[in-house]
């Protein structure tokens, strides 16, 4: 068996800045390093390698990626290949996947490993699209992997929205790994310095037989219309002077009117169009990996009705016929048609679901867009559909609109949430993924004769990733997406002990607990509680951020919160640029003073 690791060299986000005049991110001078998630994938490959087996690293990027890639050789990779050519500049996800596949070359019973995300884009779709182009199964979000004695079968533990699942699969296979699977290997600087210039093989597009028409800007099925600075939208009032009691008192006085002011929630949807034009259909995958209703599909269905005049949403159900309550919830959300792609109850994986979606697209050739949840299952399915059919894909969309020419334009965060990019697809249909919680679902039934399902037999594609067991790590209770009050903890709480001290106050507020990515990486709370670019997007009545630094990739998760209160001892913390009310003070002295008054305020 050969191990192939897909690696990307990324810039240090802290060194990037947005130039409004150019409408672009300035990368010049930014330090480059091997994406941390790919470093973990490399360690897994090296430690799983047996005598006689090799580990190859394949990357795509400019020539200045070479120093960082030499580190892969220094920690134990047998070969490192950089696919580098000016014609590749501007490649989107699909064009990048095409170039990487050519860089990988023929595969046998191999295991391809990649990081689940890259720190500069974080949509997690390159791996699934590479798997789609190679025609092999994909498993994402892996946090443990065990290899059988015969060598080409694997048991994996993967992250799920509520906890974990255990799956098994055979090589050839692509696995995208998360943070928990391993720590990155740290190269010896002297060993890196001793490597020759030829330690990394550099190969151009022509040598690999890459069709120039399928890569770069011209070969990318998505088009970036504009990039904008994701500037804070809240008018922060920060209380930093005087005794802590006065700071808390002033903050509470500033917070109260924000909670009393009742913004009308987007609970309704516009009337249905008089005619359902098939060219204006937006199909939304409504089933989760177990064949049940994915509640994360309800918000996107409602948003199509609200934000895309002239377009209309349909629900796609893969599996046995849906129960009545699921049909009712989809109708309330605004679905005007349903496509039932029937398969057995447990006879599903991402590959078989992708085949079912592709069957629908063969029948409904005029669909404008297909929308998937931006969770592990949704990324696996959407990536394979987009790769198989050569479709443009926009990952982690946070807004949608209609361009003057009548096409859909999606807005997504980029560069760690520092910018927002408006993107459209050149293909019909286009593909988009939307993070659960980004859009609010309608809760008011609309006028209509009921949602009806149009049955279509799904292809009998073999299931190649078998789900054996699953478990829950998130504490039972109301879904955090629907919580009125949410508390987010950052590294400033001091550790698991600090979180334990906060829990009585969190319960007194009737709040749900969430965290920043660094807290999750430290293992203090489950990954499923992470808020931000690679976590949840929430819209509570009140968000209370305690010990949070305020990195853009976290703060973007609170864009829809009605009011945000932040506590941090550092008056220069970025947090204070993107909250409604801020208190400069330590967690230990501030939170006890907030506990009872906030509870009373929330009860009013």
Report on the structure:
With 604 residues, this protein is α/β, with parallel strands linked by helices. It has three domains: 2-220, Rossmann fold (3-Layer(aba) Sandwich); 231-263 and 474-603, TPP-binding domain (Rossmann fold), CATH 3.40.50; 278-468, HUPs (Rossmann fold). The chain is 26% helix and 28% strand. It has a ten-stranded mixed β-sheet, sandwiched between helices. Helix 10 packs across helix 11 (376-389). It starts with a strand and ends with a helix. The model has no long low-confidence stretch (mean pLDDT 90).
In short:
This protein is an alpha/beta fold and 604 residues long. It is built from 15 helices and 31 strands. Helix 3 packs across helix 4 and helix 10 crosses helix 11.
Which secondary structure elements does this structure contain, and how are they paired or packed?
Elements: E1 2-7, E2 9-11, E3 17-19, E4 24-26, E5 32-34, H1 36-48, E6 54-60, H2 66-74, E7 79-83, H3 93-104, E8 111-115, H4 126-134, E9 138-147, E10 153-159, E11 163-170, E12 173-177, H5 189-194, E13 201-203, H6 216-219, E14 222-229, E15 237-239, H7 244-260, E16 281-285, H8 298-307, E17 312-318, H9 324-333, E18 337-342, H10 350-363, E19 369-373, H11 376-389, E20 393-397, E21 399-402, E22 408-414, E23 419-425, E24 430-434, E25 453-457, E26 465-472, E27 485-489, H12 496-508, E28 512-515, H13 517-521, E29 542-546, H14 552-555, E30 563-568, E31 581-584, H15 587-603
Helix pairs in contact: 3-4, 4-11, 7-15, 10-11
């Amino acid at each position: 068996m050969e191990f192939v690791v897909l690696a990307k060299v990324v810039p240090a986000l802290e060194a990037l800045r947005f130039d409004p005049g150019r409408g672009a991110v300035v990368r010049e001078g930014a330090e480059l390093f091997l994406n941390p998630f790919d470093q973990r994938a490399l360690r897994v490959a090296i430690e799983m390698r047996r005598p006689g087996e090799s580990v190859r690293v394949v990357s795509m990027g400019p020539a200045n990626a070479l120093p960082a890639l030499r580190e892969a050789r220094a920690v134990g990779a047998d070969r490192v290949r950089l696919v580098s050519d000016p014609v590749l500049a501007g490649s989107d996800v699909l064009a990048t996947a095409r170039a990487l596949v050519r860089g990988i070359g023929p595969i046998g019973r191999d295991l391809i490993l990649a990081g689940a995300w890259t720190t500069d884009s974080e949509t997690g779709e390159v791996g699934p699209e590479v798997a789609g182009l190679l025609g092999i199964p994909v498993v994402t979000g892996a946090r443990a992997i065990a290899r059988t004695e015969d060598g080409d079968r694997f048991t994996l533990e993967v992250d799920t929205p509520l906890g974990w699942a255990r799956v098994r699969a055979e090589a050839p296979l692509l696995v995208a790994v998360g943070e928990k699977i391993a720590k990155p290997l740290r190269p010896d600087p002297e060993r890196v310095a001793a490597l020759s210039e030829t330690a990394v093989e550099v190969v151009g597009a022509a040598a690999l037989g890459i069709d120039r028409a399928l890569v770069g800007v011209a070969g990318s099925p998505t088009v970036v219309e504009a990039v904008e600075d994701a500037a804070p939208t809240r008018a922060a009032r920060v209380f930093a002077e005087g005794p802590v009691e006065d700071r808390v008192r002033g903050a509470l006085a500033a917070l109260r009117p924000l909670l009393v002011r009742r913004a009308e929630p987007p609970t309704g949807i516009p009337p249905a169009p008089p005619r359902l034009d098939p060219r204006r259909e937006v199909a939304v995958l409504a089933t989760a990996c177990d064949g049940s209703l994915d509640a994360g599909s309800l918000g996107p269905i409602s948003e199509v009705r609200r934000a895309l005049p002239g377009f209309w949403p349909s629900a796609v159900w893969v599996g046995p016929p849906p129960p009545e309550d699921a049909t009712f919830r989809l109708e309330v959300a605004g679905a005007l048609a349903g496509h039932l792609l029937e398969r057995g109850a447990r006879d599903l994986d991402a590959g078989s679901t992708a085949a079912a979606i592709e069957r629908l697209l063969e029948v409904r050739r005029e669909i404008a867009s297909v929308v998937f949840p931006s969770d592990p299952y949704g990324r696996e399915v959407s990536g394979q559909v987009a790769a198989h059919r050569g479709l443009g894909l926009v990952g982690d969309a946070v807004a949608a609109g209609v361009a003057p020419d009548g096409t859909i334009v999606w807005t997504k965060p980029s560069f760690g949430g520092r910018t927002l990019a408006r993107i459209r697809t050149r293909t019909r249909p286009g593909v988009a993924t939307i993070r659960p919680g980004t859009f609010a679902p309608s809760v008011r039934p609309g006028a209509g004769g009921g949602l009806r399902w149009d049955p279509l037999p799904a292809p009998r594609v073999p299931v190649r990733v078998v789900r054996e067991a699953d478990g829950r790590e998130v504490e039972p209770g109301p879904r955090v997406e629907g919580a009125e009050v949410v508390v987010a903890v950052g590294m400033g709480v001091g550790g698991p002990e600090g979180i334990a001290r906060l829990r009585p106050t969190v319960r007194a507020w009737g709040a749900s607990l969430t965290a920043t990515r660094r807290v999750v990486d430290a293992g203090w709370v489950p990954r499923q509680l992470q808020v931000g670019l690679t976590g949840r997007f929430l819209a509570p009545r009140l968000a209370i951020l305690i010990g949070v630094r305020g990195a853009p990739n976290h703060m973007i998760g609170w864009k829809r919160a009605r009011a945000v209160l932040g506590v941090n001892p550092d008056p220069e913390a970025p947090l204070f640029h993107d909250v409604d009310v801020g208190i400069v003070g330590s967690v230990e002295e501030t939170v006890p003073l907030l506990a009872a008054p906030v509870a009373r305020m929330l009860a009013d």
